[in-house]
Write a structure and sequence with these properties.
The chain has a 6-stranded antiparallel sheet with strand order 3-2-1-4-5-6. Strands 7-13-14-15-18 form a 5-stranded mixed barrel. It has a 5-stranded mixed sheet with strand order 10-9-8-11-17, with helices on one face. Helix content is 23%, strand content 37%. The chain starts with 6 loop residues before the first helix and ends with a strand. It has 2 domains: 7-228, 2-Layer Sandwich (PmbA/TldD fold); 238-450, no CATH class. The chain is an alpha+beta fold and 452 residues long. The longest helix is centred in the N-terminal third of the chain and has 20 residues, at 7-26.
Length: 452
C-alpha cells in the first residue's frame, strides 16, 4: 500500500462540509458546523518472524451539529454522498427540535476563529507497502532477540503508518482543513533468567518517517530494558523519594490537565477547583503550550471549533494562570475559549528562566534523590480526579546512594496529586517528545511505597 498524498481528498471534504452547511441553512438552522474526515493507514505486527496481523484502514466520516436557537442536534454518517449528507443534516435538525434549550450552546465566538492558518509541516506520507512494513518489523524483532542472550521470547514488533485529512466548517464563514501523518515502530520482548521472566518494550513515533529511530535501535532498546528488569524484588512498605521516568512523568501532567479542563471546573469535579492564580507547583516549574511546533505530534493551526491556537504560558513560576477551555465550557465559567476544544497542543514541561539549576541530568537526579524508587512502569487506574488521591501499581529500580541497586516489581506508589505537585524537587533534561506532553524525569520529594 502506498500512502502518497491524494490531492482530491481535501477538496472533496471541503465540498462535503460546505454542502452540509448549505443544507443546514436551507432547513432553517440558526447556526451549524460540519466536520468531514478521511483516515487511512497500514499496520502490521510480526511475532517470532511470522506475520500475526496485517491491517489496512480507510475510514471516512461526517459529523454535523445544528442549532435552532439554543437547541442543539448532532448526527453523523460514514457515507459522504450528497443524499447521505442531506439525510444526516435532516436527522440532526430533527433531533435539535426535541432537545431542551441550553443557554450556553452555540458556535465559538467569531473573533476567536483562526484567520491566518500556518503550514505546520504535519503531512509526511510514507510510501510503505505491506511487504516493506513486514520487513521492518522483522528487522526490529531480530535486533532485539539477537542482541541480548537473556531474551527468551517476543510479544511482537509492530509498524504503523497513518494519514488523516480533516476539514471543519461552520456557519460563521470558517471552512479549512489540513492533513497530518503519524508513523511508529514498536517492539515488546520477554527476558528470562533463573526461572524469572520480565517483559519490557520500546517504541518510536513521528510525523515524518525519516525522523523515526531505526528498527534495530528500537529492538535493541526493548531488549536492554527487558533484561535490566531481571532479578526484580519486592520492597517493604516505606516512604521515600520517587523519580518518574519521562514516559511515566507524562501521566502526572495528564492528570493536571484533566483537573483544569473546563468540563471538570464547571462540573465542580476537580481537585484543582477554582485554582487559577494559586501556587500549584514549585516556583521553578513552568508549563507552556506550543501548538505551532513544526512536525509536532500535537501541533494544530486551529482547534476542533475552528478557534485559533496560540502560544500560552499555562503555569508560570508554579502559579496556574488559567484553564483549558473550549467555547462551551468557557461560557459556563464566564470566560473565553483558550483554543483547546479537543485537547492540549504540545504542553512543554520545563523550568523558568531563572531556575535553570532545577533542570538536571538523569544521573544528577539519582544522586540528588540518594535513596528511593525510580519508576519506569505504572499499572492500574487508581487516580481520583475529584480528590487528587493517587495510587498505582509500579515497577522500576531501587536506588541506593545515588546509583541503581536492583530492579523492583509488585509495589504501589501512593500520595495526593496536590501534594505531589508541590513536592516536585527537580526535573530531568531527558525530555520525551513522543506525545502531546513533552517532559523529562520528575523527582517527587516523598511518597508512600507499599509492598510486602
Amino acid at each position: 500500500m502506498q500512502q502518497a498524498a491524494e490531492p482530491n481528498d481535501s477538496s472533496h471534504l471541503h465540498d462535503v462540509a460546505g454542502f452540509a452547511l448549505e443544507e443546514a441553512r436551507r432547513l432553517g438552522a440558526s447556526q451549524a458546523e460540519a466536520d468531514a474526515s478521511l483516515a487511512k493507514g497500514l499496520a502490521v505486527t510480526v511475532r517470532l518472524g511470522e506475520v500475526e496481523t496485517l491491517e489496512y484502514q480507510r475510514d471516512r466520516g461526517l459529523s454535523v451539529t445544528v442549532y435552532f436557537g439554543q437547541r442543539k442536534g448532532t448526527a453523523s454518517t460514514a457515507d459522504l454522498t450528497r443524499e447521505a449528507v442531506r439525510a444526516t443534516v435532516e436527522k440532526a435538525s430533527a433531533i435539535a427540535r426535541y432537545t431542551a434549550e441550553d443557554p450556553y450552546a452555540g458556535l465559538v465566538e467569531p473573533e476567536a476563529l483562526a484567520r491566518d492558518i500556518p503550514d505546520l509541516d504535519l503531512d509526511h506520507p510514507w510510501a510503505l507497502a505491506a511487504e516493506g512494513a513486514i520487513a521492518i518489523a522483522r528487522r526490529c524483532e531480530q535486533a532485539g532477540m539477537g542482541g541480548e542472550a537473556r531474551i527468551a521470547n517476543s510479544e511482537g514488533a509492530s509498524v504503523s503508518s497513518q494519514r488523516h485529512t480533516g476539514v471543519y466548517g461552520n456557519s460563521l464563514g470558517f471552512l479549512a482543513g489540513f492533513s497530518g501523518t503519524s508513523h511508529s515502530i514498536s517492539c515488546s520482548l520477554i527476558a528470562q533468567e533463573a526461572g524469572q521472566m520480565q517483559r519490557d518494550y520500546w517504541y518510536t513515533t513521528a510525523r515524518d518517517p525519516a525522523a523515526l529511530e531505526s528498527p534495530e535501535a528500537v529492538g535493541a532498546a526493548a531488549a536492554r530494558r527487558a533484561a535490566a528488569r531481571l532479578g526484580s524484588r519486592k520492597l517493604a512498605t516505606r516512604r521515600a523519594p520517587v523519580i518518574f521516568s519521562p514516559e511515566m512523568a507524562r501521566g502526572l501532567f495528564q492528570h493536571f490537565i484533566g483537573a483544569i479542563r473546563g468540563t471538570s471546573q464547571y462540573r465542580e469535579a476537580s481537585f484543582l477547583l477554582n485554582a487559577a492564580g494559586e501556587q500549584v507547583f514549585p516556583a521553578f516549574l513552568a508549563l507552556s503550550e506550543r501548538p505551532h511546533i513544526l512536525k509536532g505530534l500535537a501541533s494544530t493551526p486551529f482547534d476542533a471549533e475552528g478557534a485559533a491556537t496560540h502560544d500560552r504560558e499555562l503555569v508560570e513560576d508554579g502559579v496556574l494562570k488559567g484553564y483549558v477551555l473550549g467555547s462551551y465550557s468557557a461560557r459556563r465559567l464566564g470566560l473565553k475559549t483558550t483554543g483547546n476544544a479537543g485537547g492540549i497542543h504540545n504542553l512543554m514541561v520545563g523550568v523558568s528562566g531563572r531556575a535553570v539549576d532545577a533542570l538536571r541530568t538523569r544521573e544528577r537526579l539519582l544522586q540528588d534523590m540518594g535513596t528511593g524508587l525510580l519508576v519506569t512502569e505504572l499499572m492500574g487506574q487508581g487516580v481520583n480526579g475529584v480528590t487528587g488521591d493517587y495510587s498505582r501499581g509500579a515497577s522500576g529500580f531501587w536506588v541506593q546512594d545515588g546509583a541503581i541497586a536492583f530492579p523492583v516489581h509488585e509495589v504501589t506508589v501512593a500520595g495526593n496529586l496536590r501534594t505531589m505537585y508541590r513536592d516536585i524537587a527537580a526535573l530531568g533534561d531527558d525530555v520525551d517528545a513522543r506525545g502531546a506532553i513533552r517532559c523529562g524525569s520528575v523527582l517527587v520529594g516523598e511518597m508512600t511505597i507499599a509492598g510486602d
